[in-house]
Amino acid sequence: MNEIYNKCLASANYLKSIIDAEDAIGIVLGSGLGELGEEIDNATVIDYKDIPNFPQTTVPGHEGKLIFGYLNGVKVLCMKGRFHFYEGHDMNTIVMYVRVMSLLGIKALILTNAAGGVDRTFKPGTLMLIDDFINFMGENPLTGVNIEEFGTRFPDMTYAIHPEYHDLALQVAKEIGIDLRHGVYMGFKGPSFETPAEIHMAEVLGASAVGMSTVPEFIAARHCGLPAIGISCVTNLAAGITGEALSHEEVQEAADLVKEDFKTLIKAIVAKM
Ligand code: HPA
Fold first, then answer.
1. Burial of 136 by CB count in 10 Å (0-12 exposed, 13-18 middle, 19+ buried)?
2. CA 97 to CA 227: how far, in whole Å?
3. Contact residues of ligand 1, CB 6 A cut-off
4. What is the pLDDT of residues 31-40, one digit of tens each?
């Protein structure tokens, strides 16, 4: 059996001995958005360090806890802290949790992140549903021998974003009066923020927001047949748009501003999935 598959299976088997995540909604909480984890009822909290083969996070604002429980009565499996390419992890490590969640039998995955706004009508605090993405990270998590246990060699990406859940998210946002914008997310490797010239390029190429995550996870989710959608929290306008220098502190502060709307929106979407 494939070595990566075996590692994922060992993580999944450990988790299965503690929780039953069959049909749960998987949620990944991006930078500064971790508070949703505190609203999970009947929570079982598992440290990444206790899960066999699981990587460790190194980024402030990414705690490293898996939280299983109920969000307004809906079974959820929540990742507080993800893994990034810029931390030096290889792509298989970055997407490992997606594959483990899939082995646990979750129903769907909601990926969230902090992002820089390229669309000039965005403001810090804008929430953006991801319509599609551009992989500008220079790598693909499916590079190497195909892991047949997960999926096919050449998976489709036309429907990498699950169309029904995507439209449902927009509809739910409208119903509850949250201004949810939508657009294309472009993934950069980081960890330096982009240059103004790179943001100009992103704009020309059709991106509405840029960030340093999420793209590998979408690809791995599609590969293993896991329906996924994504929501970006625009924490700043991207480099060169306002002329201000960017910082991670600013990213966390802006995520703080929108966290109530973000939590309300995720809870409402999860309830309808
Ligand atoms: N660029 C890339 N990633 C980000 C940004 C940005 O401007 N803001 C938050 N994450």
1. middle
2. 15
3. 114-116, 193-194, 210-212, 235-236, 238, 246, 251
4. 777 788 889 9
Q: What pLDDT was estimated at residue 200? A: 98
Three-class DSSP category at 205 = coil
Residues near 6 by Cβ (< 8 Å), separated by ≥ 6?
Answer: none
Provide the pLDDT for residue 249. Answer: 85
Q: Could you give all domains of the chain from N- to C-terminal order, each with its CATH number? A: 3-272 (3.40.50.1580)
Cα 72 to ligand 1 centre (Å): 31
For residues 114 and 58, the answer to whether their CB atoms sit within 8 Å is no
List b or e across 52-67, with b for residues whose CB sees 16 or more CB atoms inside 10 angstroms: ebbbebebebbbbbbb
pLDDT tens readout for residues 219-244: 999 999 999 999 999 999 998 898 88
Helix residue ranges, H only, 36-153: 91-94, 96-103
In percent, the amount of the chain with pLDDT more than 90 equals 83
